[in-house]
Amino acid sequence: MLRTVAALALACTAAACARLAAVDSNALWKIVDVRCVPSQQATGTPGQCTIVNLDKRYAILKDIVGRSQHLLIPTDRVNGIESPFILAPNAPDYWDDAWTSRLYVEKSVKRTLPDNQLGLEINSQFRRSQNQLHIHIDCMQGKISDALARHAKDAPSEWHWDTLDGQRYRIMRVTSLTQADNPFRIVARDNPNSQAMAMQTVLVTGAGPSAEQDGWLIVNSGLDIDNGSGTAEGLLDHACRVADGG
Q1: Could you say which of 52, 65, 68, 127 would form a disulfide bridge with 108 (CB–CB 3.0 to 4.6 Å)?
Q2: Residue 200: CATH number of its domain
Q3: In the chain, which residues have pLDDT < 50?
Q4: Cβ-count burial of 227 within 10 angstroms (0-12 exposed, 13-18 middle, 19+ buried)?
C-alpha cells in the first residue's frame, strides 16, 4: 500500500490524528491548503511544508516515509494524472519544478548525486492513496539505474519497450521536461482521454549523470497493457542506498 498519506502526521501530534490520516484520501491537500499556503501568505514561511512557491503554484513536502523522499504538490486542487488541468495550455510545469526540487533529496542525504540516480514518479489513479496530485522525488534503485543505462543514447522522442523489475515499461529519452517534452503531454498523446490517463504511471530520471547534457528518460507503464503496472514507485528507493554506495 502506498504510504504518502503518512505525511499528514507532520501536521499532527496525536497518534489518533495519524491514524485518521491513514483513511483520509485528502490528507495531502489539507496539509497544503489549510496549513502551508496560508502560512506562506500570512508570514512568508511555509508552515508544515519545506517550501511553498505561490507564483509557480506548488509546494514541496518532506514525506515521513524514507530518509529523503519529498513530494511536489500543486497548490491548486488537482486530483491526479487523469485531470485535464495538467494538459491545459497554462498548466504549471510540474515535472520541471519537481526536477529542480531534487536538491531537497540531496540535502537529506548530505551529498550530491548523479542525475541518473534521482527520480520523479507519479502513480495511476488506481495505485494511489491520495486524491491530490503529487510527484514523488527520491533516489532511484541502483539496479534500475543500471538497467536504464542501456537507453542513455536512445534517439530522442522515440519509445523503446523494456522490462524493469519484472514489468513492462516503455522508455523515451527527451531533451527537456517542458512544452512538447512535458511527460504528461508525451504520455497523453497515446492516451487521449481521462479514463486512459487514469491507468498510467510515469517515472522520470536522468539519462546520464548530467541531465542537462544527457537528457532525461520518461518511463511509462499502464494497467491497460500486458504485464503493465499502474505504479512505478517501486523503481525508486526510499532508503536511498545509492547515497551510501549501495
Answers
A1: 68
A2: 3.30.428.30
A3: 1-21
A4: exposed
All cell numbers assigned to 182? 512535458
- Point out which residues pair with 204 in neighbouring strands: 120, 218
d(CA 7, CA 124): 19
For residue 121, give the nearest of 100, 95, 144 by alpha carbon.
95
Q: Is the pTM of this model over 0.70?
A: yes
| Full domain range(s) for residue 188 | 4-244
Total count of domains within the chain: 1
Contact by Cβ (8 Å): 116, 209: yes
Cβ(31)–Cβ(8) under 8 Å?
yes
Confirm if 66 and 238 have CB atoms less than 8 A apart.
Answer: yes
118-122 and 135-140 as β-strands: parallel, antiparallel, unpaired? antiparallel
Q: What is the pLDDT of residues 95-112, one digit of tens each?
A: 999 999 999 999 999 999
What secondary structure letter does DSSP report for 141?
A: P
DSSP 168: E
Euclidean distance between CA atoms 208 and 214, whole angstroms? 5
Q: Which amino acid is at 62?
A: K
